[in-house]
Amino acid sequence: MTKLKIIIVFGSKPNFDKDAFKYFFLSLNKLQDTYEFCFPDFDDYAFDEKITIFQSANKKLEDFVNNSTENYDYLIGIITSRFDNNYFFNATENSSIITTDIWDKYFSPPSLFEYLLHSIYCCLIYSQKTLPDREVSEKAKLICIGSHSDTRGCVADFTRNKFDDRIDIALGYICDEHKAEIIEIFGDEYLKETTIILERKWIGNIEEKNSVAYNLKHIFKFDINKDSGFNKTWIDKVKEKFYDLPADLTGEVLKVVLTALLTYFLIKFGLPPK
């Protein structure tokens, strides 16, 4: 089957490690046969405002991208500003926009990368792009996949209470109603692939050499179990150095650091250490 080309664009300057995120997300190209994810190389950003207008944002993004390329099947934009209606994302037939606003402060963990994974797949399911080489039945043409207002722990929950998104991401679950609709429109294989991706077992762990989690930690210095995914503060960077130390050395290093600090303050205030 021919893959659909999905381009992911940074609509505004990322407030997270975009190279680590690219590696994380492009790993999906090896795990499924529906989408070919890619990141086009743009020198500029479509959005610079602190508040983005929900109703007009997708058209603005599409116009920005189409000035440079039209070689794609679907467009995903990631922005840092918040929507004026406080939604997490907006999915339309041609494009989707997702905001990273406030995730690190109020909702992480799960990490930003897991949140973006969840949101991007929500948008792809909602947008209902017809898959190549698959005929859609008359019944499927009448289905409009949308969200449900009750919280089921499903990818399609309408999270009016935004904290419910943490539940949905943690579970990686698709309810029976939406499983049936996905099968009707996209087919059984698509449901299997999507379930595997949303469950996130493919990420692995940092002890498993060459797993996604291992490579994120050792190549990009991002620990998906501890880091939010946003750009690290200097305190985070100091903590990271201690995480990298073997457990039996951490205590010794702390002793040296504390001794050095104590010596500094004693000298500073005229009380030389004995």
Describe this structure in words.
The protein is α/β, with parallel strands linked by helices and 274 residues long. The chain has 2 domains: 4-135 and 205-232, 3-Layer(aba) Sandwich (Collagenase (Catalytic Domain)), CATH 3.40.390; 235-268. The chain has helices at residues 18-26, 54-66, 103-107, 112-127, 138-142, 164-171, 176-186, 188-199, 212-220, 234-244, 247-268, and strands at 4-10, 35-38, 51-52, 74-79, 82-83, 89-91, 95-99. The strands form 2 sheets. It has a 5-stranded mixed beta sheet, sandwiched between helices. A two-stranded parallel sheet has the order 3-5. A hairpin with a 3-residue loop joins strand 6 (89-91) and strand 7. The longest helix is centred in the last third of the chain and has 22 residues, at 247-268. The model is unreliable at 229-237 (pLDDT under 50).
Summarize the helices and strands and which ones pair or pack.
Layout: E1 4-10, H1 18-26, E2 35-38, E3 51-52, H2 54-66, E4 74-79, E5 82-83, E6 89-91, E7 95-99, H3 103-107, H4 112-127, H5 138-142, H6 164-171, H7 176-186, H8 188-199, H9 212-220, H10 234-244, H11 247-268
Parallel strand pairs: 1-2, 1-4, 3-5, 4-7
Antiparallel strand pairs: 6-7
In short:
Helix content is 44%, strand content 11%.
Could you say what the CATH topology of the largest domain is called? Collagenase (Catalytic Domain)
What order do the helices and strands follow?
EHEEHEEEEHHHHHHHHH
**Low-confidence runs (pLDDT<50, min 5 residues)?**
229-237
Principal-axis shape equals globular
Q: Work out the helix count.
A: 11
- Which structural class is indicated by helix and strand composition? alpha/beta
Using the CA coordinates, give the radius of gyration.
22 Å
* CATH architecture classification of the largest domain: 3-Layer(aba) Sandwich
Strand content: 5-15%
Strand count, sense and barrel status of the largest sheet are:
5 strands, mixed
CATH class of the largest domain: Alpha Beta
Strands ordered across the widest β-sheet: 2-1-4-7-6
> Separation of termini?
76 Å
Helix content: 40-55%
